[in-house]
Design brief:
This protein is α/β, with parallel strands linked by helices. Among the domains are: 84-241, Rossmann fold (3-Layer(aba) Sandwich), CATH 3.40.50.980; 382-482, Luciferase, domain 3 (Roll); 487-617, GMP Synthetase, Chain A, domain 3. It starts with a helix and ends in a 6-residue tail after the last helix. Pfam families: AMP-binding, AMP-binding_C.
């Protein structure tokens, strides 16, 4: 008896010691184990697809869920609930209409220009059921960029929402000249050559298209094209394969989401966050999604209470807008337990918790076209993800030294990149291999190649260049520091400086333009600023420039500040010098060059005075 007690005491003491050691030395062990187990389980499922050549795609999963829970609400939009069966049958009608037309074959691409609406999903799913790829067009892009989008993804058909049909006025002849068939989500259409879709849907059956029509035999088959701003200027069509769609659809589930969750998505569906993670993730779990036409800070919490929302999607700016709302007594009266998104600043994160309760904020990191994803499954404030020894075995990435002045990675005499130490900031690179392929962009191998760095550590290797500066601390938490190159983020959107530069160059009095982003205290991302030189025979015209940028550029891409220079600064390799311009900011008290501000009140670029500058810093001036 005494011996048994001794052994029992020793066993309990050992367990207690192991527990204490784990808490002190490996505080995130169980959370890491839980998360990695899910990642590995999902990875095995994808590997089975590869071995059997039978891919169960996101649309296949939706059809399965429609059969399993046909009457369960799949989508709630503007107070109306649509069941899994409703969306399934309506998407069948879309498929039937185009099947009867006989103009689409498996593998063709169809462009979709629509605002958030249930029919966005029905058209997307209907075309997917025909085995077509769908190109999501950003509703903010203008005519010149829109035509470019068709060229690079080789779309045969355009489906446009009724509210966006007028945006095609100036390019409709060009589309029709290129034999692109245009369909409007209307019952009748007065535009010559534009087909109406809703009336034909009403007069067709909702019988499903045979599954063989949509069947995919490879994870590498493209299913979507999502346009992203990059360093090349005009929008680029990121190739989204079934592999990427399936990985994104596992996001909510990996964070612990279940079929009982109600997800709130106020983000545009043409973005990968709302479509791949939001819609795809809802389908994977068999949950319900509340879709908002457009984000409203004043309606957000009322919507969440009304629909019993438990998970919401965000970008950093969204949370800041919520924190800027006047405080209310019932702010913590909700059922939300999780937020999933990216770009959440530490100060906003803490304020969000103070105002709205200890909601688990699940930051994630990954570009639309990228081959790497980080997930902050622990919930540490300020981190975009977490890594450890086991994660690095599965996903090969490195942080390398970056020369901001030369705008390129630092290379040794042998030509190889240099890894940074723990805690130091470096350029994030992700190894391209069988486990983490990079599918690039449609329309140009050149664009794809530009995103790759070769001979990084050894001859012949290839890494995806994220264009992001990151740091990894001693505990394995990854923190975002900044973007490099010709892209910056403002209002939750990527702004390609070369595209804005080209648009500014169309103004008759501008000789040269250099576009970059500057930080504004209290604002997320960087605001657009352009250093410009004026042609000798002209003078600066703030009103004309205002009218031009408002006509040609979406709101988030319009330069807030214009800096007039006598000559443009260049690097030793004859590239425009941005580094000093970015560092000098937009303070009129420290810059001798004239600076102008985009003023919507006077509808003109007006001189930036000290008083306007101060009103911007203290948040009084709306940006």
């Amino acid at each position: 008896m005494f011996v048994s007690l001794t052994w029992l005491t020793a066993l309990l003491a050992g367990i207690f010691s192991a527990h204490v050691t784990q808490r002190l030395c490996f505080p995130y062990f169980w959370k890491d184990l839980f998360y990695l187990t899910k990642v590995i389980r999902y990875g095995i499922r994808l590997e089975i697809y590869k071995m059997t050549s039978r891919v169960v795609t996101v649309i296949d999963r939706f059809v399965q869920q429609a059969e399993r829970v046909p009457n369960k609400p799949f989508l709630i939009f503007e107070g109306i609930s649509y069941s899994y069966r409703d969306i399934d049958e309506r998407s069948n009608k879309v498929a039937r209409v185009f099947e009867e037309q006989g103009t689409l074959k498996k593998g063709d691409t169809v462009a979709l220009l629509m605002s958030n609406d249930p029919d966005f999903i029905c058209v997307w799913f209907g075309l997917s059921k025909l085995g077509c790829s769908v190109a999501f067009l950003n509703t903010n892009i203008k005519s010149r960029s829109l035509l470019h989008c068709f060229n690079c993804c080789n779309a045969k058909i355009l489906v446009v929402g009724a509210d966006l049909l007028e945006t095609l006025d100036d390019i409709l002849p060009s589309l029709q000249k290129d034999n692109i068939s245009v369909w409007a989500l209307k019952k009748d259409c007065s535009y010559p050559g534009v087909h109406s879709l809703l009336d034909k849907m009403e007069n067709t059956l909702s019988q499903p298209i045979p599954a063989q029509r949509r069947a995919a035999t490879s994870l590498k088959t493209p299913t979507l094209y999502i346009f992203t701003s990059g360093t090349t200027g005009l929008p680029k069509a990121a190739v989204i394969t079934h592999l990427q769609s399936l990985k994104a659809a596992a996001g909510f589930w990996a964070y612990g989401g279940t079929e009982d969750d109600v997800i709130y998505t106020p983000l545009p569906l043409y973005h990968s966050a709302a479509s791949l993670i939001g819609i795809g993730g809802t389908i994977e779990m068999g949950a319900t999604l509340v879709l908002k036409k457009k984000f409203s800070a004043s309606q957000f919490w009322n919507d969440c209470r009304k629909y019993n929302v438990t998970i919401f999607q965000y970008i950093g700016e969204l949370c800041r807008y919520l924190c800027n709302q006047p405080e209310a007594k019932n702010e913590k009266d909700h059922k939300i337990h999780m937020g999933v998104g990216n770009g959440l600043r530490q100060d906003v994160w803490r304020e969000f918790h103070r105002r709205f309760g200890e909601i688990r904020m699940c930051e994630l990191y990954g570009s639309t076209e990228g081959n790497l994803c980080f997930m902050n499954h622990v919930g540490k404030i300020g981190a975009v993800g977490r890594s450890n020894f086991f994660y690095k075995l599965l996903f090969k990435y490195d942080l390398v030294r970056y020369d901001m002045a030369r705008d390129e990675p630092v290379r040794t005499e042998q030509g190889f990149c240099v890894r940074v130490k723990k805690g130091e900031t470096g350029l994030l690179l992700s190894r391209v291999n069988i486990m983490s392929p990079f599918f690039g962009y449609a329309g140009s191998k050149q664009l794809t190649e530009k995103k790759l760095l070769r001979d990084v550590f050894v001859k012949g290797d290839a890494y995806f260049n994220t264009g992001d500066l990151m740091a990894e601390d001693q505990d394995g938490f990854i923190c975002f520091r900044d973007r490099v190159g010709d892209t910056f983020r403002w209002k939750g959107e990527n702004v390609a400086t070369t595209e804005v530069t080209e648009i500014l160059g169309l103004v008759d009095f501008i000789q040269e333009a250099n576009v970059y982003g500057v930080e504004i205290l209290g604002s997320e991302g960087r605001a657009g600023m352009a250093a410009v030189t004026v042609r000798p025979e002209y003078s600066f015209d703030g009103k004309k420039l205002f009218e031009h940028v408002c006509r040609e550029l979406p709101t988030y891409a319009r330069p807030l500040f214009i800096r007039l220079q006598e000559c443009m600064e260049m690097t030793s390799t004859f590239k425009q010098q941005k580094f000093r311009l970015v560092e000098s900011g937009f303070n009129p008290a420290t810059i001798t060059d004239p600076i102008f501000f985009l003023d919507y009140t006077t509808k003109c670029y007006i001189p930036l005075t000290d008083s306007i500058y101060q009103s911007i810093l203290n948040g009084q001036q709306k940006l």
